[in-house]
Write a structure and sequence with these properties.
Length: 410
């Protein structure tokens, strides 16, 4: 039987905002988003993306939630794009077990170490009397008042701190070693276990999992399995300094695009991929290289919204972007001709937007493509709260997508 000891350990009070580099919407320069270690420091610098709130205005708890979401989003996006993380640990760091580390720390802070318990039966000493076993197994002394049990069976529960506590302690040290800075915990001195000991620990955890029906402890044991497996599969030595991030506005724009696709739906499929065709002098034809790909396309009743994700701050999309988006709308409208649908164009930009987390900016038009009978000749712009979109992307939550796509009537 597996139980939890009541030995919680509080998280130290510290100022996480000191670790952060804030970037306002007015900063349009090339930048890095994610966490990056400097060898001279025990903690990384957290480079926040456009649209994140100023960390100095947030509590440590609020900021920790945002940083946790950002790390999880980067890992998820990198995994979906099948690219190696930009760090010293190589492509396998796509599997960086951040969630498992996080669960180990928080569970320990709230509940302490897990303990193994062993039930022993005895007819002497202290312990709870088990009357069902006493009546079944012991002979009573009969008196005028009835039966008397002189040696009732008692149950003693003995807790062992050996194997499971040793394994949890090692996993907790790994968690503190890699992300303890996020929770104000000191970086421990860590001695890496051998492959044989890691395999022993994984087998022990599998045995422990069969002995518990507590869902929280089961999840904790699963996190320990993930951490141990990551150690077994990683032949390199533990490194104290690593980076998890995305370099350059184009690459960060890809992350924003994946978040928008995840929440609003993808337009990257054959049905909505316009392509140019060459007709040659000999009347043969061939497809031009490079299909045009829509970021997202949504259908809400009679409205079809063609969406392009734009990772822009105060600088708004250029004329070429607007022209291309109108072409997208024109093409989709032609594909949907006769289906009684109204096609509208929308750019989605990052921002810090309070509830309801979306803000209408306005619209753009092209002087050579301005037909008022065609609503897709206007390209509308909205800012979506960056943190809210991260949360929805991680939870696969599309419940607010329709509201976010609503365009106010002129």
């Amino acid at each position: 039987m597996i139980q939890q000891s009541l030995e919680p350990r509080s998280i130290q009070d510290y100022y996480l905002a000191d670790f952060c580099e804030f970037r306002s919407l007015s900063d349009s320069g090339e930048h890095y988003v994610g966490i990056k270690f400097d060898d001279s420091k025990e903690h990384p610098i957290i480079h926040l993306p456009l649209g994140c709130p100023d960390p100095s205005t947030l509590s440590t708890l609020e900021l920790r939630k945002i940083i946790s979401m950002l790390i999880r989003v980067i890992i998820k996006v990198k995994r979906e794009l099948n690219k190696g993380l930009d760090d010293k640990r190589g492509e396998n760091s796509i599997q960086f077990p951040f969630d498992a580390y996080r669960r180990l720390i928080l569970d320990y802070v709230n509940f302490g170490f897990i303990r193994e318990s062993e039930r022993n039966e005895t007819t002497s000493g202290s312990g709870r009397i088990d009357w069902s076993k006493t009546l079944r197994k012991s002979q009573p002394l009969w008196t005028k008042s009835g039966p008397v049990y002189l040696s009732p069976i008692r149950i003693n529960t003995i807790y062992s701190h050996q194997d499971i506590m040793q394994i949890q302690s090692y996993c907790l040290k790994l968690a503190d070693f890699h992300i303890g800075w996020l929770y104000g915990r000191k970086k421990p001195i860590l001695r890496q276990w051998s492959s044989a000991k890691l395999l022993w620990a994984r087998n022990k955890i599998e045995l422990f999992k069969r002995q518990t029906f507590d869902s929280r402890i089961s999840k904790l044991l699963r996190s320990m399995q993930i951490i141990l497996s990551n150690q077994v599969d990683d032949s390199r030595n533990i490194e104290g300094y690593y980076n998890i991030g995305i370099q350059g506005n184009t690459a960060v724009g890809d992350m924003w695009e994946k978040m928008v696709e995840g929440v609003f739906g993808s337009g990257k499929h054959g049905q909505y991929s316009p392509q140019a065709i060459y007709t040659h002098a000999n009347q043969s034809s061939s497809a031009a290289a490079g299909n045009m790909e829509l970021d997202s396309i949504r259908f809400d009743g009679s409205i079809c919204t063609v969406i392009d994700a734009k990772y822009y701050g105060e600088r708004l999309p250029a004329t070429s972007d607007i022209n291309k988006q109108i072409t997208y709308g024109e093409w989709v409208a032609k594909k949907l001709e006769g289906k009684n649908l109204q096609v509208q164009n929308l750019f989605i930009l990052p921002g810090e937007v309070l509830d309801p987390h979306h803000e209408y900016i306005g619209y753009a038009t092209m002087d050579i493509l301005e037909d008022k009978s065609k609503p897709y000749h206007k390209v509308h712009l909205k800012r979506i709260d960056f943190c809210q979109l991260m949360k929805m992307y991680l939870q696969n939550d599309k419940s607010k997508s329709k509201d976010f796509c609503h365009i106010p009537v002129d």
